[in-house]
Design goal:
- 38% of the residues lie in helices and 21% in strands.
- By secondary structure, the protein is α/β, with parallel strands linked by helices.
- The strands form three sheets. A nine-stranded mixed sheet has the order 7-8-6-5-4-3-2-1-9, with helices on both faces. Strands 10-11-12 form a three-stranded antiparallel sheet, with no helix packed on it. The chain has a three-stranded antiparallel sheet with strand order 13-15-14.
- A hairpin with a 2-residue loop joins strand 7 and strand 8.
- Helix 1 runs parallel beside helix 2, helix 2 runs parallel beside helix 3 and helix 6 packs parallel to helix 8.
- The N and C termini lie close together (6 Å).
Length: 386
């Protein structure tokens, strides 16, 4: 059996985590903190990690600075990070370079520094257009702040992305419709996520749970309005105008190589190794080394199936066979599983690909699980057929 592989000369992506925010939202489970006292120490460690990267001189065609809220950094710090990245890696002239921001810290100074650093894409969180909902989840901006910041961004950037969360407390259909209207006016890319209430967050501690049926209705309405506004869905939660799909995020869904830098950052070598940093800021500053995990054949298959089926294109069968060395049907076709699922309308098999039927995209998890690898049974089928 041929294991998964990747063209080692193909450009990779870089993700850099900035773990600072002006405040912590009530739903947030990301590694972030409003305590900026260790900013200098953190940035020294981060730049040291960049300078000593094992992937030094790798070709790079996407950079994503996320968090946290990178726009919270003191002015000049972003430039230091980008200077280090530029010195350490072979960054393509047309590299997609994204930095995250929030309305309250999207200042003229931040915008100017992004331009100086070569940033060509900005992602600014909205989450809700309803001020009462924003207050309930601990956001420190209101809707008018977002609009004002979006207007400033659009004067300098032609590629702006934003986010909407579905299932927030007291959220109604008007919130979704108003949010999509503002995305249509200012954005070329939109992410629409269903709220996940993570353990330990204030929302979880107060016992909040979203109504799944109501969230599904909100999602359907968001899809309808985004389509009318010229946004195409290319992944279950991501929509873009033509040519504005996130190059960086597509690397995750296509199982391509990406380099993770900073606390809590994850990386993947594009073949059989994933790695992660500590999710504790103090531990990262003391030791920025990574913990690596080796993926076996079942891991590689299951990850690929799970990630590719999240996308509109699904699993392209020729690409799958070239990557793994055996046909996709070698695992699932022997039990007539694919035929049955297609007959039930759950998936579409057009001879060149297998993908989730559009009407089932939002409830895809059960469909994907059915196509995941059974280690004992299906691994034996692969071994015999290949």
């Amino acid at each position: 059996m041929t294991s998964a592989h990747s063209d080692k000369f193909k450009p990779c992506g870089i993700y850099v985590h900035i773990p600072f925010c002006k405040s912590k939202c009530k739903y947030c489970a990301f590694v972030s903190s409003p305590d900026m006292s260790c900013e200098d120490a953190y940035l020294r460690t981060l730049i040291g990690e960049i300078d000593s990267s094992a992937d030094k001189h790798a070709a790079v065609d996407s950079i994503y600075i996320g968090g946290g809220t990178p726009s919270c950094l003191a002015r000049g710090e972003l430039c230091k990070i980008f200077d280090s990245l530029d010195a350490a890696f072979d960054i393509a002239d047309d590299c997609e370079i994204t930095v995250e921001t929030n309305p309250e810290s999207c200042s003229d100074g931040f915008i100017s520094e992004c331009l100086d650093c070569g940033v060509n894409r900005v992602s600014m969180g909205l989450q809700s257009s309803d001020d009462s909902v924003l207050k309930a989840i601990g956001r420190i901006h209101d809707f008018s702040d977002f609009v004002a910041a979006a207007e400033r961004l659009c004067q300098k950037f032609d590629n702006v992305s934003s986010d909407l969360i579905l299932g927030l407390p007291e959220q109604g259909m008007r919130d979704v419709e108003k949010s999509i209207d503002v995305f249509s006016r200012y954005c070329s890319h939109a992410s629409v996520y269903a709220l996940t209430v993570e353990n330990g967050t204030p929302l979880a501690l107060c016992g909040y749970k979203a109504n799944d049926d109501a969230v599904a209705d909100l999602y359907d309405r968001a899809c309808e309005k985004l389509k009318v506004a010229g946004f195409c869905r290319y992944e279950v939660s991501n929509f873009a105008r033509r040519g504005r799909e996130s190059r960086h995020n597509k690397k995750y869904w296509e199982c391509e190589k990406y380099i993770g830098l900073g606390v809590a950052a994850h990386g993947y070598d594009g073949m059989c190794t994933r790695y992660r940093h500590s999710d504790n800021i103090a531990e990262y500053i003391a030791n920025p080394s990574v913990t690596a995990t080796q993926l076996d054949a079942a891991d590689l298959y299951n990850e690929y199936v799970m990630l590719r089926l999240r996308t509109e294109k699904g699993i392209e069968l020729d690409t799958f066979r070239k990557r793994f060395g055996y046909p996709f049907a070698a695992v699932n076709g022997n039990s007539d599983k694919l035929k049955r699922m297609e007959a039930d309308g759950l998936i579409i098999c057009d001879g060149g690909s297998v993908r989730i039927s559009p009407r089932y995209m939002f409830v895809m998890n059960g469909i994907i699980e059915e196509l995941m690898l059974d280690r004992e049974t299906d691994m034996q089928i692969i071994a015999e057929d290949c």
